[in-house]
């Protein structure tokens, strides 16, 4: 027995996380490259000062005001309004999804997704002793409805996790698939559509929020970490049937959302339009990046998110390292041969393009010298 006496299945496992390196161009964790506006910063500072006055007291455990604010924000985008009792929030949508597994997974139950997908999902399953099953996506990273249906009927999962757009591929889910999967899953499970990048979807691609009134077992998660330019704030949330929110209450830690988190999130919501103000230009930059990469002969997955998965590289690690040596940090993730780049400012994307061409040219020259 070695010390510390950790659960055997966790022994020797490296904690999840992209390298946090201090380099000039950081395009590795899909953050919004634009910081908050001066007006938002001022409102956040005032709100924190007001919250500080009562920091000797525990915060509102039910975060009522924040739930109302988040419901109003989501309702801007839906035909049927989302109600405050349909909202749950936690410290990032990762915590929201872990709580979902705590409440709806567990020993003897199964969580399911389709690879390649977000690498945190199997960790929620592991940490809650839930059996993990991963089906596969098609060659173009889309989800085939018949394949998905067959696997769901076979393993009868209590939680199905599907990001839309998918990370790391950028693929959005066909809205017809959502209704169909909710039906196959039935009342013995829930479908979690992880819309961490939902605000970046292309015009005309609907949100899964529209399917909520038709499906009691549907959960849509969102976050302030990406389009909302609030990765440092740690606020994620979901919209679902109120009974699902009630179930999460049983497993959440008391007062899990601090008074300062609630105050900052409310201030951020008041400045939603400013914080989301760069989404349109990030979308344009994304489309331009995809076009440029394809023009250079790279393969690029269709993307509705603020990143692009591109390849194929015989030695992707060498390309990743070559970019890093030139001050550009991207992400070595996804199936072998692919790399993922987050969409930054026009200047950052210019650096990325120059560095990538240089890396490719240098490696071609080396190959010629040492065939
Ligand atoms: C970034 C991301 C999240 C959001 O994580 P937070 O905990 O809210 O910061 C959720 N799902 C996917 C697929 C992501 O890429």
TrEMBL record:
<dbReference type="InterPro" id="IPR015424">
    <property type="entry name" value="PyrdxlP-dep_Trfase"/>
</dbReference>
<dbReference type="InterPro" id="IPR015422">
    <property type="entry name" value="PyrdxlP-dep_Trfase_small"/>
</dbReference>
<keyword id="KW-0028">Amino-acid biosynthesis</keyword>
<dbReference type="InterPro" id="IPR015421">
    <property type="entry name" value="PyrdxlP-dep_Trfase_major"/>
</dbReference>
<feature type="domain" description="Aminotransferase class I/classII large">
    <location>
        <begin position="25"/>
        <end position="355"/>
    </location>
</feature>
<dbReference type="GO" id="GO:0000105">
    <property type="term" value="P:L-histidine biosynthetic process"/>
</dbReference>
<protein>
    <recommendedName>
        <fullName>Histidinol-phosphate aminotransferase</fullName>
        <ecNumber>2.6.1.9</ecNumber>
    </recommendedName>
</protein>
<dbReference type="GO" id="GO:0030170">
    <property type="term" value="F:pyridoxal phosphate binding"/>
</dbReference>
<comment type="pathway">
    <text>Amino-acid biosynthesis; L-histidine biosynthesis; L-histidine from 5-phospho-alpha-D-ribose 1-diphosphate: step 7/9.</text>
</comment>
<keyword id="KW-0368">Histidine biosynthesis</keyword>
<dbReference type="GO" id="GO:0004400">
    <property type="term" value="F:histidinol-phosphate transaminase activity"/>
</dbReference>
<dbReference type="InterPro" id="IPR004839">
    <property type="entry name" value="Aminotransferase_I/II_large"/>
</dbReference>
<keyword id="KW-0808">Transferase</keyword>
<keyword id="KW-0032">Aminotransferase</keyword>
<comment type="subunit">
    <text>Homodimer.</text>
</comment>
<dbReference type="InterPro" id="IPR001917">
    <property type="entry name" value="Aminotrans_II_pyridoxalP_BS"/>
</dbReference>
<feature type="modified residue" description="N6-(pyridoxal phosphate)lysine">
    <location>
        <position position="226"/>
    </location>
</feature>
<dbReference type="Pfam" id="PF00155">
    <property type="entry name" value="Aminotran_1_2"/>
</dbReference>
<comment type="similarity">
    <text>Belongs to the class-II pyridoxal-phosphate-dependent aminotransferase family. Histidinol-phosphate aminotransferase subfamily.</text>
</comment>
<dbReference type="InterPro" id="IPR005861">
    <property type="entry name" value="HisP_aminotrans"/>
</dbReference>
<keyword id="KW-0663">Pyridoxal phosphate</keyword>
């Amino acid at each position: 027995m070695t010390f510390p006496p950790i659960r055997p299945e966790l022994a020797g496992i490296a904690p999840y996380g992209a390298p946090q390196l201090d380099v000039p161009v950081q395009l590795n964790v899909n953050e919004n490259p634009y910081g908050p506006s001066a007006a938002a910063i001022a409102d956040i500072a005032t709100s924190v000062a007001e919250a500080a006055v009562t920091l000797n007291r525990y915060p509102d455990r039910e975060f009522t005001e924040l739930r109302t604010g988040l419901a109003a924000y989501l309702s801007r985008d839906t035909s049927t309004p989302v109600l405050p009792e349909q909202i749950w929030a936690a410290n990032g949508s990762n915590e929201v999804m872990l709580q979902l597994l705590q409440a709806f997974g567990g020993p003897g139950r199964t969580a399911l997704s389709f690879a390649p997908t977000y690498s945190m999902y199997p960790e929620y399953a592991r940490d809650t002793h839930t059996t993990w099953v991963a089906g596969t996506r098609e060659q173009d990273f889309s989800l085939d409805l018949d394949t998905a249906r067959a696997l769901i009927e076979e393993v009868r999962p209590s939680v199905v996790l599907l990001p839309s757009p998918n990370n790391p591929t950028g693929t959005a889910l066909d809205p017809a698939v959502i209704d169909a999967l909710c039906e196959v899953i039935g009342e013995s499970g829930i479908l979690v559509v992880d819309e961490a990048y939902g605000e970046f979807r292309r015009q005309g691609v609907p949100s899964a929020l529209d399917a909520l009134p038709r499906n009691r077992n549907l959960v849509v998660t969102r976050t302030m970490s990406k389009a909302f330019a609030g990765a440092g704030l740690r606020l994620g949330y979901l919209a679902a049937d109120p009974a699902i929110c009630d179930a999460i209450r049983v497993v959440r830690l008391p007062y899990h959302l601090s008074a300062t988190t609630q105050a900052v999130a409310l201030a951020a919501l008041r400045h939603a339009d400013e914080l989301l103000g760069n989404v349109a230009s990030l979308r344009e930059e994304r489309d331009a990046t995809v076009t440029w990469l394809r023009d250079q002969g790279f393969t690029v997955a269709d993307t509705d998110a603020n990143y692009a998965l591109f390849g194929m590289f015989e030695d992707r690690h060498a390309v990743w390292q070559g970019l890093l040596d030139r001050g550009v940090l991207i992400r070595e993730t996804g199936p072998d041969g692919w790399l993922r780049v987050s969409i930054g400012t026009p200047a950052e994307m210019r650096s990325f393009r120059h560095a990538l061409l240089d890396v490719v040219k240098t490696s071609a020259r080396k190959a010629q010298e040492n065939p």
